[in-house]
Amino acid sequence: MSAILPPSERLWWKQPIDKVEWAWIAIAFVWGMIMFAMMIYWHIYGKQNLSNEAYKTTPELFAAKAEKFIAENTIRTETERNIPVVKVPAGGDGYLIARLWDWYPILELEKGQTYKIHLSSLDYNHGFSLQPVNINIQVIPGYEHVVKMTPTKEGTYAIVCNEYCGIGHHSMLGRIYVK
Amino acid sequence: MATTYRTCPVSGLQFEDQAEKLMRWNAVAGVLWLLVGGITALLVILTRWPAIKLLPADQFYLILTAHGIDMLILWILFFEMAVLYFASSTLLRCRLATPKIAWLGFWLMVVGGIMTNVAIFQGESSVMFTSYVPMQAAWHFYLGIILVAVGALLGTAVFFGTLVVAKRDKTYQGSLPLVTFGALTAAIIATFTILAGAGILVPTFFWSIGLIKEIDAQLYRMVWWGLGHSSQQINVAAHVSVWYLTAAVIFGAKPLSEKVSRFAFLLYILFLQLASAHHLLSDPGMSAEWKVLNTSYFMYFAVMASMIHGFTVPGAIEAAQRRKGYTNGLFEWLRKAPWGNPVFSGMFISLVSFGFLGGISGVVLGTEQINMLMHNTFYVPGHFHTTVVTGTTLAFMAITYLLVPVLFRREMILPKLCQIQPYLFGISMSVLGLVMMGAGTLGVSRRHWDMAFSGAPFQYEWPGAAYLMMGLTGIFGVIAVIGGGLWILLVVGSLLFGKKLDGGKVSDKPTPIPAATQAASAVAHGSDHVGVPGTVVLALLLFVSFVLYYFVNWKYLSEVWLLS
Ligand code: HEM
Ligand SMILES: [Cu+2]
Ligand SMILES: [Cu+2]
Known about the structure:
The complex is a heterodimer of chains A (179) and B (564).
Chain A: H1 19-45, E1 54-56, H2 59-73, E2 74-78, E3 83-87, E4 93-99, E5 102-104, E6 106-109, E7 115-121, E8 126-131, E9 135-139, E10 143-150, E11 155-161, E12 173-178
Parallel strand pairs in A: 3-6, 4-7, 6-12
Antiparallel strand pairs in A: 1-10, 2-3, 4-5, 7-10, 8-9, 8-11, 11-12
Chain B: E1 5-7, E2 14-16, H1 17-48, H2 57-90, H3 99-122, H4 139-169, H5 178-208, H6 217-251, H7 258-270, H8 288-295, H9 297-323, H10 332-335, H11 342-365, H12 379-407, H13 415-441, H14 464-497, E3 506-507, H15 518-525, H16 533-558, E4 562-563
Antiparallel strand pairs in B: 1-2, 1-3
Helix pairs in contact in B: 1-2, 1-3, 1-14, 2-3, 2-4, 2-5, 3-4, 4-5, 5-6, 5-7, 6-9, 6-11, 6-12, 7-9, 9-11, 9-16, 11-12, 11-13, 11-16, 12-13, 12-14, 13-14
The complex binds protoporphyrin IX containing FE and copper (II) ion (CU) (2 copies).
């Protein structure tokens, strides 16, 4: 007669299901379908979808590509560490290195332009967390992730690292300018 | 095999001697890990509270690693072993299959747990419980977890064996009780989970001692979450079973429909194996199709299962109460429930908090695109403190108020404090979850020592509201630690100093469960179909909150930079 005893109706699977229960099951089912459809809808009509473009790479390969990009596009350096500020060509490719414990280099973008930003890590996992926009992307060593981004507002943005990456994790802060 | 059976005079439950000892030892070991986990919780919370910031960075990450392992793995797993033995040997009134193996499993888990903790506290293994490669821990960190997993697998095997024993010895007739069926679900999922765990942790262990050169970082995350996520589904199946158990013990509640509840458990088994996907939604290495298909567990069938249990558990209680005559209005059945009984109040807070906070936030977090707003922020631990803590942990705490008298034969000490403990812990932990999610919505990172980014080349100032949320996190976190500490105090105090209770008759043969007679079943069912309008209202409230919160987040998403 209760949930801790065998069902008192031996043929419990033949017992009818109450209307109210059916209704709730139907609601849950339909809602699940709506949520499933919503993700697909957003892939077709939404404007915020995470890119699927990713390649296997190695730290050496990725660092070399990024250094070339930096050498060609640096416009100035900032802070006492002389971090290069690199203007990504409008509509072009930009590279962002995640490593213990910085985001390198500083990128400069223009509002309304679309960029292909290549993300990878040279060592551990890191977390690209763009603030205060609050976009969060996992950055994994060995994988080059090409994310198309279009900034919608001017300003100075921070890249926080939000995947634990060791003792200096909290000091891993990068910067993006949007002009 | 010579063993004895004791029939508890209070509850009528029948305990086989070996199973009883195993349940006690597993439960006590679980409580001790909860104690260690609770101390680490206090240190974590006092460090994340920006006004206090207690520990230096290295110690913070060490303690946080210990918190994850000791709570999520050790406290929960040990207690679940006790639940498995209870749901098999006790509810089916049979002897435990191969108790020697069960003891071996127990000691493997003890040794493994200690080994991993030694590794952590030696300081070379602050890698968090997820231990993402290529960050490397000491070899005994991984070996300890592997031993725990093997131990748990043995316990699970003993559970399966015990079901066979009961069937063969005909200690019950007909089908398994629903609670045992739920535990069976948990055990089946556990088997899959532990195999996935072995698939990743064994190679990682070899890597840590130099036998394997490299492990792909993305592959690791994928297989690891096959362990990490599915094991949360074990917890859900286990605590839903405990909810049904509580409803049965306190109200004599029977499921609204055996068919529906069992079907919902079955959905858990069928549709969660690839749920690891929703931890990888913001990862580079997987296609969008794969993510969408898997994060929706093949179209949200597992979510549907939880929504069904969320309806049938309170529904069963309402039906039982209405049969007793509490039929006025929508909610007399609930108002007149035994709110002063911690077994009930804890269970009900667990149900509500898990449904409204944990369930809704989990589905939103697991939506492919929306995940980008929350991935690795403080939202994530906020979410799972309302699943694995107010859901699983609180349900286990509540049922312990029942187990102390019937299993340990001790009266609970300080009954007034027992009454308030579930409220203190359940409510503060729910608020803690909420404010953590609030901080995460504002972008604050999880696993992060310093919101001020000391030593960084730049400055970033979090919004004032984020600091407010983190301050509240500190306050409610401390209250939650007090609520959890109180439970440990009450339980351990009762085990040591509680009044000894009569154990009841001991016999060397099990007394089988009497077959349900036609008369008994007519009394239980009769033709008295009762509606559950109060539960319908609660369920609709849940549904409306769910829909609103879900679409609010799409709105947030539509306001960020464009991404493609
Ligand atoms: C007693 C009160 C508790 C408090 C105040 C508390 C507090 C916290 C906080 C603030 C974090 C996030 C730290 C960060 O990301 O920086 C955290 C992480 C965590 N907590 Fe708790 N917790 C408590 C109990 C529990 C329980 C009972 C469980 C499990 C059953 C649990 C499991 C976890 C896990 C798995 C993590 C993630 C660790 C990681 O990120 O590696 N906690 N806890
Ligand atoms: Cu980092
Ligand atoms: Cu980091």
